[in-house]
Design brief:
The chain is mostly helical. It has a single domain, classed as Orthogonal Bundle (Arc Repressor Mutant, subunit A), CATH 1.10.10. It has 5 helices and 4 strands; from the N terminus they run E-E-H-H-H-E-E-H-H. The strands form 2 sheets. The protein has a two-stranded antiparallel ribbon with strand order 1-2. Strands 3-4 form a two-stranded antiparallel sheet. Helix 1 crosses helix 4. The termini are far apart.
């Protein structure tokens, strides 16, 4: 999706759009708790979320605390609020995209963990009698 930010044309990835949506919909105190939330909710790696947050900060769309400037809450800038108003039209579509991706990953994990759990169950069923 090509979007206008501060009179420059830029491209925002679906992940960046998701982040803008989530920040726009919810009040979030810290970037680190937000990263945990996105990772848990949508199955996106924490490093990918941090990467996207930092890209959005460089594009002046979000602001959050850093070591040099502690105490800022995670929030959309004026440009970010403008982007949010454009992106929220596609909000359900973007959220469904990430939820479906997370379900696919979960299904793959479930299939692979079934094999592991069968092995684990076999090992766990061994009993040892110890006299006290």
């Amino acid at each position: 999706m090509i979007t206008r930010v501060e009179d420059k044309k830029i491209t925002l990835s679906k992940r960046e759009q998701l982040i803008i949506l989530e920040i726009g919909y919810d009040e979030i105190m810290s970037a680190s708790s937000f990263v945990d939330y996105i990772s848990d909710m949508y199955g996106v790696s924490k490093s990918s979320v941090w990467y996207s947050l930092n890209n959005l900060k460089e594009k002046n769309i979000v602001d959050f605390a850093t070591k040099d400037h502690p105490g800022h809450t995670l929030m959309l800038t004026k440009s970010g609020v403008s982007e949010f108003s454009h992106i929220k039209i596609y909000g359900p579509e973007i959220i469904n995209f990430f939820e479906s991706q997370d379900e696919k990953i979960g299904a793959k994990y479930l299939k692979s963990s079934e094999k592991v759990s069968e092995i684990g169950i076999a090992k766990d069923t061994i009993s040892i009698n110890i006299s006290i």
